């Protein structure tokens, strides 16, 4: 096949949009990329099992030799979320220029090196630098893995494969909580690097996404990638799909200059960006930034086993993600997200009320189990919607020419929100308690719920072109 591939206005056949047969290679590519998502999710909860370590005055437990202050804890918790200051100008450009595969390899290398350095160099400032580097790697993972998942799958399988990728997050949380509960500091950080190392080994046999190859003028390689990733058995279908990709690539090339301005001037893309920011805000302000990093410490203060509760949380989250993976094509991502937001709002408000009454000594400490119930219900809601469909929806909203930029901007906003939340939480807790934060999360989530219900289109099972037409129609 020559590098010149006919760009036609014909649409891919219903065979491409309809049911797909089994293809082991696309599952292998997904499996390889999933390990990088696991590495990123470990990064998100790294501080949770480490809080008790850094607060210990036992030098055999605390590598720093003495407890750290609240402000140092805030810095160590949040520094990885300063990474957008370094990554935002280059994230989308690097992803497009070097491809999704090479960008994922870069992320895995940074992740592994940061954890191994923490394991063997006991210095607070080195820890902060390594956590920042791990944050940079996390940004590349969040952008590239989501885009890679969407670009290697056809519309009929995109929803399910997107959830396969997000299923890696609860697996990573569970992995991090378990090794954090039983492994010493050095071994814990060595084991944290393991998923990234596995990804690097598996990456030797995966293909880059057809879209990324087409963006770099490698049309013949893009077609070969489609031949590996598809099992239609009809070359005509593959050429039609490649033609659809090339139309979007051509549009991206025409808008390569002043891309941010062009994104904003395009009505559908502008709406995609605003809705993407709402989707990100919904997930970051639902309460997950409290539950994952700080729940163990809070439960320890209530004389409950924080590590045990965290492991239970991760198990529930994994089961919730697995359940969502099975039903997403029937129910739709938007409905899952709305259900999830309602449960999370009610859980945060209820737990805030309980902690308020507890702080005023109105309720007995014998009812501390209620806080555990609220968190577990929250995780059921989060894992069946917000936690598993957020990135998938985000990557589907944007057309090819603006996808890397749009996802980068939305993810950057989410990371900055997480930085503010994680840095402020220990300080706010010391001054006012936990309950004002939970009520604030409930309020923000309620506003986001209204916007999602009325404005967000359903993307499940729809081609990128169809999603863009929905955005244009739904003013």
User: How many angstroms separate the termini?
Assistant: 43 Å
What's the architecture in CATH terms? Up-down Bundle
Q: What is the succession of H and E elements?
A: HHHHHHHHHHHHHHHHHHHHH
Structural class: mainly alpha
Description:
The chain is built from 21 helices and no strands. The chain has helices at residues 14-17, 24-45, 47-54, 70-78, 84-87, 91-120, 124-152, 155-182, 185-202, 210-215, 219-229, 235-254, 259-265, 267-301, 306-331, 333-359, 369-383, 386-397, 400-432, 435-455, 464-473. The model is unreliable at 1-20 (pLDDT under 50). Helices cover 79% and strands 0% of the residues. It is mostly helical. The chain has one domain (23-206, 255-473): MFS general substrate transporter like domains (Growth Hormone, Chain: A, Up-down Bundle). The protein starts with 13 loop residues before the first helix and ends with a helix. One of its GO terms (cellular component) is plasma membrane.
SSE diagram, text form:
Elements: H1 14-17, H2 24-45, H3 47-54, H4 70-78, H5 84-87, H6 91-120, H7 124-152, H8 155-182, H9 185-202, H10 210-215, H11 219-229, H12 235-254, H13 259-265, H14 267-301, H15 306-331, H16 333-359, H17 369-383, H18 386-397, H19 400-432, H20 435-455, H21 464-473
Helix pairs in contact: 2-6, 2-7, 2-8, 2-9, 3-14, 4-19, 6-7, 6-9, 6-19, 7-8, 7-18, 7-19, 8-9, 8-15, 8-18, 11-12, 14-15, 14-17, 14-18, 14-19, 14-20, 14-21, 15-16, 15-17, 16-17, 16-18, 16-20, 18-19
């Amino acid at each position: 096949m020559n590098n010149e591939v006919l760009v036609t206005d014909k649409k891919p056949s219903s065979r491409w949009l309809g049911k797909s047969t089994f293809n082991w290679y696309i599952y292998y590519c997904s499996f390889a990329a999933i390990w990088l998502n696991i590495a990123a999710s470990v990064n998100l909860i790294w501080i949770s099992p480490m809080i008790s370590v850094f607060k210990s005055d036992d030098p055999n437990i605390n590598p720093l030799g003495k407890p750290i202050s609240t402000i140092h804890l805030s810095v160590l918790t949040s520094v990885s979320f300063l990474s957008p200051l370094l990554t935002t100008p280059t994230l989308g450009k690097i992803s497009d220029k070097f491809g999704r595969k090479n960008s994922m390899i870069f992320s895995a290398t940074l992740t592994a090196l940061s954890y191994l350095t923490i394991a063997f160099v006991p210095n607070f400032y080195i820890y902060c630098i390594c956590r920042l580097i791990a944050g940079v790697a996390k940004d590349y993972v969040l952008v590239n893995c989501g885009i890679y998942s969407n670009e290697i799958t056809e519309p009929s399988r995109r929803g399910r494969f997107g959830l396969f990728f997000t299923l890696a997050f609860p697996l990573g949380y569970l992995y991090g909580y378990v090794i954090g509960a039983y492994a010493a500091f050095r071994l814990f950080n060595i084991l944290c690097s393991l998923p990234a190392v596995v990804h690097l080994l598996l990456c030797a046999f995966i293909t880059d996404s057809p879209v990324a190859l087409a963006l770099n003028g490698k049309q013949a390689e893009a077609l070969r990638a489609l031949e590996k990733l598809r099992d239609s058995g009809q070359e005509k279908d593959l050429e039609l799909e490649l033609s659809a990709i090339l139309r979007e690539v051509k549009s991206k090339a025409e808008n390569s200059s002043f891309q941010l301005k062009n994104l904003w001037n395009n009505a559908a893309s502008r709406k995609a960006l605003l809705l993407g920011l709402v989707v990100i805000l919904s997930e970051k302000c639902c309460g997950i930034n409290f539950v994952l990093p700080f729940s163990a410490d809070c439960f320890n203060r209530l004389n409950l086993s924080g590590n045990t509760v965290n492991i239970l949380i991760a198990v529930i989250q994994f089961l919730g993600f697995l359940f969502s993976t099975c039903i997403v094509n029937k129910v739709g991502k938007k409905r899952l997200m709305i259900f999830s937001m309602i449960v999370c709002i009610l859980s945060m408000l209820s737990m805030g009320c309980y902690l308020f009454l507890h702080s005023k000594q109105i309720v007995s400490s014998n009812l501390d189990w209620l806080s555990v119930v609220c968190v577990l219900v929250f995780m059921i809601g989060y894992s069946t919607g917000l936690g598993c469909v957020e990135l998938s929806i985000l990557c589907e909203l944007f057309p090819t020419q603006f996808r890397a930029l749009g996802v980068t901007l939305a993810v950057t906003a989410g990371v900055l929100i997480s930085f503010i939340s994680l840095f402020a939480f220990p300080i706010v807790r010391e001054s006012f308690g936990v309950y004002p934060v939970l009520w604030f999360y409930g309020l923000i989530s309620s506003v986001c719920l209204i916007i999602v219900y009325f404005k967000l289109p359903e993307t499940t099972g729809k081609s990128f072109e169809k999603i863009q037409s929905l955005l244009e129609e739904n003013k």
